[in-house]
Amino acid sequence: MNRKLSPKELLLMFWAFFKIGAFTLGGGFAMIPLMKVEMVDRQKWIKEEEFLDIIAVTQSAPGAVAINSSIYIGFKLSGFLGSVVATLGTVLPSFLIILFVALFYSDMKSNTYVKKAFYGIYPAIVVLILAAAVNLWKAAFKDKTGIAIAVLSLAALIVFDVHPILVILLSGFAGVFLNKNARQGGGRE
Amino acid sequence: MTYLALFWAFFKVGAFSFGGGYAMIPLIEKEIIDIHHWLPMQEFLDVIAISQMTPGPIAINSATFVGYKVAGFWGSVMATLGVTAPSFLIILILALLILRYRHLPLLDAFFKGVRPAVIALIIQAAYSVGRNSFSGVKDFAVAFVVFAGLYLLEINPIVIIALSAVIGIMIY
């Protein structure tokens, strides 16, 4: 099911996740554009469709999305050892930076440079996340029902504040239902 | 004993927080403040603020930070292990099942339905970050520069994030 990576490839994977962990600023979803570039575009370890599936699964399970997806992708690439190596890669930058802050620099919160840097980082993250959505567009929409599901999901999430897990489950069931109709009836409404 | 208590407290946080980072904060607060009285409230708020400002998942950052404050280096190791352990158990089981059965038409159709919803999730994430971060001309200028860098110059997102921090320090 999953091929085993060579030690050199494992190191490469560790480094890819380390970079993602080190530059994920401003919450879990900021990791999506970074992960997409590293995992899908550069290393071609996973396909776009599967990347979307992984986001759905890791968002629905408890825990941090960045950690969950590291475990999933690591496992897929190289079994249990792969999942440990990938997770270490994601966690280590956080761990080292937090220890550094705790030891030497506890008043970072009131530092004006840090604040100003974040004024620049947040608009950048918005553009990066939107760009990831556009990049993954083709992989997500195979037919018209896809667009309907996306529009309904977006309305549910933003306007009606429905929980993401519920949106994921309902759209999955819609997929099953519509697909069955299509196969049995030869067409769908 | 503190090590074990840290591990178990953060294990519970990891096991019961659905939806990532921000959903964890109330759970962490309950464990750290209400149950164990490990930190005074003001210090806890500082820990959360700094966890949001440093790279990486908030869950990991706050576990490492609280663990260190409560019991030093090994405290941070135990807390971080605790918050990651439930993810390991749950995701390994899910990955095993999904990778084994993904060829089944039922699961395939399920994921075909899910993918457009994930696009919606990603757009919502951009919306919720963007709602609070666009208030002036400078914010749109940064966004425009990033857009140009991404599409015209094809700069790597990691480089873009580093550059946007530098731009932020220079212009705000």
SSE inventory with pairings:
The complex is a heterodimer of chains A (189) and B (172).
Chain A: H1 7-23, H2 31-42, H3 48-60, H4 65-104, H5 112-140, H6 144-158, H7 164-185
Chain B: H1 2-16, H2 21-35, H3 41-53, H4 58-101, H5 105-131, H6 137-151, H7 157-171
Helix pairs in contact in B: 1-2, 1-4, 2-4, 3-4, 6-7
Key attributes of the depicted protein:
heterodimer, A: 189 residues, mainly alpha, globular, B: 172 residues, 84% helix, flat
Q: Explain this structure to me?
A:
The complex is a heterodimer of chains A (189) and B (172). Chain A is mainly alpha-helical and 189 residues long. Helix content of chain A is 78%, strand content 0%. Chain A has helices at residues 7-23, 31-42, 48-60, 65-104, 112-140, 144-158, 164-185. In chain A, helix 6 packs antiparallel against helix 7 (164-185). Residues 185-189 of chain A have low confidence and may be disordered. The mean pLDDT of chain B is 90. With 172 residues, chain B is mostly helical. In chain B, helix 1 (2-16) crosses helix 4 and helix 3 packs across helix 4. Chain B has helices spanning 2-16, 21-35, 41-53, 58-101, 105-131, 137-151, 157-171. In chain B, 84% of the residues lie in helices and 0% in strands. Chains A and B meet through helix 1, helix 2, helix 3, helix 4 and helix 5 of A and helix 1, helix 2, helix 3, helix 4 and helix 5 of B.
**Helix content range of the residues of chain A, please?**
over 70%
- How would you describe the shape of chain B? flat
Per DSSP, the total helix count of chain B is 7
Biggest sheet layout of chain A: none
Taking all residues together, what is the mean pLDDT of chain A? Answer: 87
Give the strand tally of chain B: 0
Spans of chain A of at least 5 consecutive residues whose pLDDT stays below 50 are 185-189
Low-pLDDT segments, ≥5 res of chain B: none
Number of E-state strands of chain A: 0
Structural class by SSE content of chain A: mainly alpha
Helix content of chain B: over 70%
Shape of chain A: globular
Element-level helix/strand string of chain A: HHHHHHH
Structural class of chain B: mainly alpha
Alpha carbon gap, first and last residue of chain B: 47 Å
Largest sheet of chain B: none
How many whole angstroms does the radius of gyration of chain B measure?
A: 20 Å
Spell the H/E element sequence of chain B.
Answer: HHHHHHH
How much β-strand is present in the residues of chain B? under 5%
